[in-house]
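Hello, quick one for you while I still have it in my head. A protein chain has come my way and I'm curious about its shape. I'm sending you its amino acid sequence along with the backbone structure tokens. I'd be grateful if you could look everything over and explain what you see. Here's the protein in full, and shout if anything looks odd to you:
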Amino acid sequence: MLINHDTRCSLDAVVDLVNTAPEGAEGDGLADVAALRRFVERNVISDIGTLGERDLIAVRAVRARFAEVFATAGSESATRRTAELLNTMIAAAGTTPRLTDHDGYDWHVHYFAPGASLADHLTADCGMALAFLVVGGEQERLRRCEAPDCRHAFVDLSRNRSRRYCDSRTCGNRLHVAAYRARRREAAS
């Protein structure tokens, strides 16, 4: 599946957003407006004005809806539910496709209206990126890390769709080392 730069950036942003949710011992990655600003900067989200408490509340609500999308992904029977979730979200954001070439980037499409709130911006652009995966029959690429102590969301963009961990250097490596040590202990006894 060919994924252009803008769609990839939106997929990265939605994964980052979903992974800010408090889970287990991890606190809320969007604990305050300063954390929301760091999220915006980290994901190079443009056309964002001054952020406030209202934006934080709205983005947390969007995050919960995107988490539902990742929860429904993975099976063919869930495609209809995922489509319903995305359709509802995208419509509520007042999606307004427009061509733009800002900040030195080539022409690309933004799906949010000029002056849209951060929540609507994320809903429109990230929702459309996820919709492209559904349309392409690639919904199974929306995954959760298989490490039992992680469960972070990620989009498997590997050629053979075989990625199992959100980060092979941390979660994957940690599990492989643990399995190796268990085999060594078993062999020694």
Notes: The chain has a mean pLDDT of 87. The CA atoms of residues 176 and 182 lie 10 Å apart.
